[in-house]
Amino acid sequence: MATNENLPPNVIKQLAKELKNLDESPPEGIKVVVNDDDFSTIFADIDGPAWTPYENGVFRMKLLLSRDFPHSPPKGFFLTKIFHPNIATNGEICVNTLKKDWNPTLGLRHVLIVVRCLLIEPFPESALNEQAGKLLLEDYDEYARHARLYTGIHAKPKPKFKSGAISESTTALNVDQTNTSVLSAEIKAAASVAALPLQSSLAPSTTATRGNDQEHAAVVPTETVVNVSAAATTIISAAPAPQKKEGGQAKAQPDKKKIDARKKSLKRL
What we know:
The protein is α+β, with helices and mostly antiparallel strands. 41% of the residues lie in helices and 17% in strands. The strands form three sheets. It has a four-stranded antiparallel β-sheet with strand order 1-2-3-4. The longest helix has 33 residues. The termini are far apart.
């Protein structure tokens, strides 16, 4: 693997300065991926220009710098598959700037801009991809169809998260947590109420009644039922239990009839 040791110190210093400038102020439609440990390989993402068959695509490319850089031009390759006359099937880029028109004073910014302009205006006369060059000259619509097909398959941009969607998700999460906290508090409060001694509501009430020379005490308890569900916590007061007084009177009436029947039988005797 190539490292910064393969480049002269003065070249490394110049590259570091230029890469920093590209990172802080990138050219339109170009994003350089900086690797501080290896300046001999420069990666960049190029956005497909509008009104071209490469629109809405993102193409990854690399520049390989030799030890003689900048006296010798870098070699350019597309890592993303693309249907283009001046880009070979192995990704090699054919442009005069990287060959006969190279000048040591040209920087990386200029090279990257030229490569992106190549997507806008190809040169079929010096084609590395003969099929693409021939279609461009003879049938532009068919060439554009092939280029769009490659772009849609191989150059799809990576999905980006929307800040609004993240904000909405965070808000929804906070609301759920708030509802859970409120429900937990209600459950604890209901449990506390159920645990406390209820002096007034649970105090037995005694009603004295007289029937057949007997005194019946009716005790009416008040029962509290705590019903806790996932949706809400409710406290339901149960209806008073039926009084024992009515049961006692109902039982006393048959006994009285039996006594009266026995008295009548004795009188007949």
